[in-house]
Amino acid sequence: MQSLVIVAHGSHLNPDSATPTHTHADTIRATGAFDEVRTGFWKEQPSLREVLRTTHGDEIYVVPLFISEGYFTERVIPRELRLEGWEPELWNSDGISADTATLVASDIDKEVHYCGPVGTHEAMTDVLVRRAESVTGDPEVGNGFGFAVVGHGTERNENSAKAIEYHTERLRDIGRFDEVKALFMDEEPEVDDVTHHFDSEDIIVVPLFIADGFHTQEDIPEDMGLTEDYRNGYDVPATVDGHRIWYGGAVGTEELTADVVLERAADAGADIGDAIARVRQRTNPATQVAGE
Predict the structure, then answer these.
(1) Is CATH 3.30.360.10 what the domain over 124-253 is classified as, yes or no?
(2) What CATH number should be reported for the domain whose range is 2-120+255-287?
(3) Considering the entire predicted model, what is its pTM?
(4) Are strands 202-207 and 145-151 parallel, antiparallel or unpaired?
(5) Average pLDDT value for residue range 233-250
(6) How far apart are CA 134 and CA 28, in angstroms?
(7) What does the H/E/C string look like for 147-178?
């Protein structure tokens, strides 16, 4: 019996914080790849401390719905799950290459396959591309467009910036967009000056965040000049300094993120059959329009 546990931060203040986690869990449940799919949160219920006690599988895969390796993925989650013998070095990572560590969760006396965060998996690049397609409504978008991948900055966690740079480089290598650049909220180059960093008339802006919240819904739109007050809303695209800004919001709300969760579990040894292909088809707007 295989169990998947998706763990996330959650929030006492933002009721929408957990929505992507539940959405991706539902998408994966529909594939039937796991006998059970559960969710656990740091700031909401069910809690990280309790979630494994309600999990019944012989093979348990835990996937953090976080962007980067850092305090939560390296300290909080393993502690709350009571993973015996955990040390960040078990991931053998340079900050963006965490894979899997298999340890015993002491209070249930079972092995748990603890996976790296979704945000550093190579498949997240595909989710960024899908968000570009979603926000523009164009499955072929790329030519003539710039693409800004936005992060918070390195003040609190230098690995956060590594994840941003990693996917920025991968997007460049694809060669689909005319320009691809990493921008940040709290360090240079800043998202406030997005139009100064691109020659392209059309610029897609996607924050590498899991859920929409204060930063993605309020700070970034106002800082970019899409609106003076986020409560009044803004157009997509919005014209700023002669550029059209296609603002996509947090990439983790894109339905294809469920694919990255599956990829993490599969890399750890889970038998998921054709679930990845099914999720990619199910979440593809083109197949939805076609009624497939």
Answers:
(1) no
(2) 3.40.50.1400
(3) 0.95
(4) parallel
(5) 96
(6) 20
(7) EEEEECCCCCCHHHHHHHHHHHHHHHHHCCCC
